[in-house]
Design goal:
Blueprint lengths: L1 H8 L6 H10 L1 E5 L4 E3 L7 E7 L2 E5 L6 E6 L4 E2 L2 H6 L6 E4 L3 E7 H10 L3 H25 L2 H11 L3 H4 L2 H8 L3 H11 L1
Helix pairs in contact: 2-4, 4-5
């Protein structure tokens, strides 16, 4: 739970009273590797903070799932569109490693907003982080080659190869595993 507090206190000071209200609404959950946190068709009920682990977002398919993002330690994770609209998600969320998260329900987030001085700032920071990751991902597909996306992924997350199967990385950067193999041969 201290990781959550440290994350926020990088940008804003949280009073002890506000922290007590906020932290009382958090619940800790640990999931095994390859655990589906949210299935497509379910409605997201939580905004979560990853204490440890790696999570992938994907669109399930009979032929081959389409991985479209990853989330790592010290980041927020949520099917945020579903969380906000209370509509079913069109994608699934799965752990790729054993993962520990701190969850906050939609209703509890509303309480934090209403009962604390810092609540709106906390919500805004989480929303901004999720938005910036999504924007960066979209722009990378418009402005970068698959090789550049691959290299950037490892600049941002150097331990990625040890933690994420190559088939998911290939899907994430928008290429086949065979094309990723050719890129890796050129680079290494």
């Amino acid at each position: 739970m201290e990781q959550v507090r440290s994350y926020f206190e990088k940008n804003v000071k949280i009073t002890e009273k506000d922290w007590q209200i906020f932290s009382s609404k958090l619940s800790k959950h640990t999931f095994p590797k390859k655990h589906i946190i949210l299935n497509a068709g379910q409605t997201e009920k939580y905004l979560s903070f990853i204490e440890s682990g790696v999570i992938r977002f994907f669109i399930p398919s009979k032929l081959q799932d389409l991985t479209f993002t990853f989330a790592f330690e010290n980041n927020f994770v949520s099917a945020y569109d579903s969380f906000l609209t209370k509509q079913p998600a069109t994608y699934s969320i799965e752990t790729l490693t054993e993962t520990t998260i701190w969850r906050l329900s939609f209703d509890d987030l509303q309480i934090v907003y209403n009962e604390t001085q810092i609540g709106n700032t906390i919500g805004r920071k989480a929303a901004e982080e999720l938005f910036l990751k999504k924007s960066k991902r979209e722009l990378s597909f418009l402005t970068q080659t698959a090789e550049e996306r691959y290299l950037n992924l490892f600049t941002e997350q150097p331990n990625l190869l040890k933690r994420i199967p190559l088939k998911y990385i290939a899907s994430y950067i928008g290429i086949t595993p065979q094309a990723l193999s050719r890129i890796r041969k050129r680079i290494y």
